[in-house]
Amino acid sequence: MQKTLLLLVCICALSGEVIGALQPETIQPEVAPTVGLTAQQARAYAEVLKMRPAAARALLRETPISAGTLLVHDCLGITELLVGQDSRRYDAIIDAQDERLTMLEKLPPNALTQYARAEIRLHQAAAQVSFGHEVQGAWSLRQAYQQMQATVKRYPTYLPARKTLGMMQFFIGSLPEGYRWFLKLLGLSGSVEGGLSNLRAAARQPNDFQTEAQIILALVEETYYKKPAEALQLVGRLAQQQPDNLLFSYLLVSLNKKQHRTDAALAAYRARPNGPGYLPLPYLHHMAADLLLYQGQYAVSRRENELFLMEYSGEHYRKDAYFKLYLAAWLANDAPAAERYRRQINAGGRTVIEEDTYAQRFFDGQLPLNRQLTRARLQIDGGYYQEALATLNGFQATASTPLRDRLEAPYRRARAWHGLNRLDSARLFYARTIALAGTAPYYFAPQSALQLGYLYQLEGQRATAKVYFEKALSYPKHEYKNSTDTKAKLALKELE
Q1: What's the pLDDT tens digit per position in 150-170?
Q2: Does the N-terminal or the C-terminal CB of the chain have fewer CB atoms within 10 Å?
Q3: What is the C-alpha to C-alpha distance for residues 385 and 2, in angstroms, rounded to an integer?
Q4: What is the DSSP string of 170-211?
């Protein structure tokens, strides 16, 4: 869901021309009155964030046609489309966006009108790329970027435009090397520093979309700069202030899950607002299934993933869901169900996201999983580090043990010790994993190098950290190469 709701963020890196952080003193801004959402439009937008479409539409019916009304309407439409992933709604959404863009062309130009044009074009790009229309999506993204760039140049103090421009700048600048050819082909370059500067300006100063900017900035810093405390604090505060906000509840589940806080994530999941007024959010069931799998609650985990597959119309995460269903059945010694789920991995869905790619590789490789290593991995993902070490004590490698298992064992020990803040032991097992791996095409060694880079960076050993970040980038092929390379690349930029 985090990836779905912020799909706009992730795909902005596919096209556009990038500028650095704009300095107000070098720009001749147009003198124009301050513009923004009306009180009624702001309330409707708040309902969009709460994921209550009927309430948002009721408020919008009472507002005259204007740039703000058209923009909030489009925010609602793209949210429904990307969350539900219902391809039957695609054409109607695209047609509605084209109509709104035509209407905006006829309105007097001001900061909000120009921002709405660029933002709706960006929404259209997200819809097009998400539903397989990559060529049109790339063109829409380029248009959106150019329009948002022009808006910031013309209205440099209009913070919502800096939010979106900064978001695009950052993600273009942080793309892994695998996408460099594409950017060079289009003559594009990125600006991580400029993007962060613009995002921070929009997040720290009051504006109509400040909360959105704060969330995007927090997710960026949590994912790429190891700042989970700030993100958890922000999302926890937002969820406490608005317990009826489903987006904030979702983010609280997601961030706690990423930080291996399973109990807190499940508590947030169970406390989420629910009811007929809310947009269905099937991905929450998929997250809950993971959390329950970490705890060894296999039957309940299976029920949650079955709910996800029943309610979800999209193609992403389907392979991952069937892989997790396989694990739940296999670990519960239900061999017939496990085989049924295993076959389903190959039956449908796409391999765009890394989780689905991993599931497909598991199916294609036909390499049996080791029960102790698999259980330990799930316990570590759930934050149950002592339990994981106890599980790992039951693993004994022999001459016939596959190389993948012989590499996974020390890596899992490293992760468990790292989680327990026993950093000397973690470093030892990360280094052992790298030494054993050579050029094996598994993620254990590159992830070990990445984690060692972070550890040495925290200790102020910049030269050693640089060596390990560069080593993480050097592995040519593994399951999580895109995300690993992006993190290593950004960490190296911090060391410059």
Answers
A1: 999 999 999 999 999 999 888
A2: C
A3: 26
A4: HHHHT--GGGHHHHHHTT----HHHHHHHHHHHHHS--TTHH
CA atoms within 13 A on the CB side of 330: 18
Q: What is the CA 423 to chain-centroid distance, rounded?
A: 28
pLDDT score of 186 = 54
Using an 8 Å Cβ cutoff, are 287 and 381 in contact?
A: no
* Nearest Cα to Cα of residue 441 among 488, 384, 481: 481
Decide if pLDDT at 9 tops 50: no
Nearest to 1 by CA among 473, 338, 364, 317: 317
Q: What's the token pair of residue 402?
A: 């596959």
The radius of gyration of the chain from alpha carbons, rounded to an integer in Å, stands at 23
Q: Which residue has the tokens 């979702």?
A: 250
| Per-residue pLDDT tens over the stretch 345-402 | 999 888 888 899 999 999 998 778 999 999 999 999 999 999 999 999 999 999 899 9
Contacts by 348-351, CB closer than 8 A, 24 or more apart? 348/315, 348/318, 348/319, 349/315, 349/316, 349/317, 349/318, 349/319, 349/322, 350/315, 350/316, 350/318, 350/319, 351/319
Spatial distance between the Cα atoms of 34 and 208, rounded to a whole number of angstroms: 12
Residue 13 neighbours by CB distance under 10 Å: 25
CA 153, CA 22: separation in Å to the nearest integer? 8
Contact criterion met (CB below 8 Å) for 286 and 317 = yes
Q: Is 56 exposed, middle or buried (0-12, 13-18, 19+ CB in 10 A)?
A: buried
Distances (CA, A) of 427 to 232, 353, 387, 434: 27, 29, 20, 11
* Lowest pLDDT segment from 44-48, 144-148, 322-326: 144-148
Cβ partners under 8 Å of residue 76, min gap 6 = 44, 48, 53, 56, 57, 60
The answer to whether the beta carbons of residues 374 and 362 sit under 8 Å apart is: no
Place of tokens 């704009």: 22
Average pLDDT in the chain: 89
Q: What is the mean pLDDT of residues 452-466?
A: 96
Per-residue tokens: 424: 């000397």
Give DSSP secondary structure letters for 332-366: TT-HHHHHHHHHHHTTS----SHHHHHHHHHHHH-
Compute the average pLDDT of residues 434-438. 95
Determine the pLDDT at residue 2.
Answer: 39
pTM: 0.88
Position 212 scores a pLDDT of 96
The whole-number pLDDT of residue 459 equals 94
